[in-house]
């Protein structure tokens, strides 16, 4: 399993890791509010391709309705099989944004 990593879980890295045995990969952390409301952000952040499955969409956020809306949009991507909520990020940005370990 290739866990979500800031700056490293993008498509090219996931495909490389899959060639070397990774069977399940996560997207980088995506902000649920932007994902739910901004089609350009969605297209840029949830890049996938043939061979990039199964894939887990990894979100941060603190509003249940927004997280659900983002998850429903992510499930439309052909390779997405699950959704993950970031509950552990200890970075200051997570605390000030009221997500991650703040929750």
UniProtKB/TrEMBL annotation:
Protein species of origin: Emiliania huxleyi
Chain ranges of the DUS-like FMN-binding domain: 2-103
Keywords for the protein's UniProt record, in alphabetical order: Flavoprotein, FMN, NAD, NADP, Oxidoreductase, tRNA processing
An example Gene Ontology molecular-function term: flavin adenine dinucleotide binding
Reactions this protein catalyses: 5,6-dihydrouridine(16) in tRNA + NADP(+) = uridine(16) in tRNA + NADPH + H(+); 5,6-dihydrouridine(17) in tRNA + NADP(+) = uridine(17) in tRNA + NADPH + H(+); 5,6-dihydrouridine(17) in tRNA + NAD(+) = uridine(17) in tRNA + NADH + H(+); 5,6-dihydrouridine(16) in tRNA + NAD(+) = uridine(16) in tRNA + NADH + H(+)
UniProt cross-references to InterPro entries, sorted A to Z: Aldolase_TIM, DUS-like_FMN-bd, tRNA_hU_synthase_CS
Protein name, UniProt field: tRNA-dihydrouridine(16/17) synthase [NAD(P)(+)]
Necessary cofactors: FMN
Keyword Transcription: no
EC id: 1.3.1.88
Entry keyword Oxidoreductase: yes
Similarity remark: Belongs to the Dus family. Dus1 subfamily.
């Amino acid at each position: 399993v290739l866990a979500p990593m800031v700056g490293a879980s993008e498509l090219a890295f996931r495909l490389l890791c899959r060639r070397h045995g990774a069977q399940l990969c996560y997207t980088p952390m995506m902000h649920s509010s932007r994902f739910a409301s901004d089609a350009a952000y969605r297209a840029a952040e949830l890049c996938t391709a043939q061979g990039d499955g199964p894939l887990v969409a990894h979100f941060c956020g603190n509003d249940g309705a927004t997280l659900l809306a983002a998850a429903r949009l992510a499930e439309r991507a052909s390779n997405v099989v699950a959704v993950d909520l970031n509950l552990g990020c200890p970075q200051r940005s997570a605390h000030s944004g009221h997500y991650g370990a703040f929750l």
